[in-house]
What we know:
The protein is an alpha+beta fold and 264 residues long. It has 2 domains: 102 residues, no CATH class; 151 residues, no CATH class. 36% of the residues lie in helices and 26% in strands. The strands form 2 sheets. Strands 1-2-3-4-5-6 form a 6-stranded antiparallel β-sheet. Strands 7, 8, 9, 10, 11 and 12 form a 6-stranded antiparallel β-sheet that branches. Strand 1 and strand 2 form a beta hairpin. The longest helix is centred in the last third of the chain and has 24 residues. It binds zinc ion (2 copies). The site of one zinc ion (ZN) has 5 residues, from loops.
Amino acid sequence: MDVVNLTNGKIKFNEQDVPVELSICPKIDCDCGSIYMKFVLSKNPSLGEIVLDLDVYENEIYADPRIDDSAFDDKVQKFLDSLSGNDLAKLFDYYWTEKARQSVEAPISEHPYVFDFKEIEKEGYMLQYGTVFPFADIWAVTIGSRRLIISDYHCLNPSCVCREAHVEFIDMESPEDKVVAVFLVDYDNQSWNFQPHTAPGEMPMPVLQALAENQIPDFYRQLEEHHKKLRQLYAVRRSQLFGSSSTKNKRKKNKKNRKKNRKK
Ligand SMILES: [Zn+2]
Ligand SMILES: [Zn+2]
């Protein structure tokens, strides 16, 4: 029997329908899995309200630390045991949906991601969108009985104007999440190329390209959006740390301009 009724904000606790307020961990990029369940226990005014912390990954409940009562702990355990698979699925969906909403609604400047500036600007490291925005929609395509996840990586070097993403197809059902193929995708020209220095994948490029185009809505526009959003956050974080534009870059610019002038 289901215990959780999220539509009317109630959970059965101690055999009673108890009003509950759910909330999630407030850190934007944190994936700790915490749902906080605030119960208002009107029949037990000494406790007033209690907060349980449910970890949706481990399916474990941590009780309000104010409560030091082993009898109560037993009740909490009983409550957890009474949650059906359906209940846990509902709570997991709630967690994921709320995290996604939180991530979309938060101003970009509040996103706490810490970039490795040296890796990105000196070593040309491309950054995976999902690493920075872990609650973004997962891109998946299916071919026959196979399901492939698409992962996109972007160049954030401020002095580079490329419009290409590094796109990986990953078979999550294979051992060690095998990368089936890797491409460089220019989202402006909608052109695909093999990533230099990698062996062509086991599936032909046109097949994978068609899968992405047909099964991911607005694939190229979404790639562009991802790139833009990452660049935006990168610029914000960079200016917070180093100021808006470094003198070094200005000097470089001037040098370039001088070169141009000389050519004329
Ligand atoms: Zn958290
Ligand atoms: Zn670039």
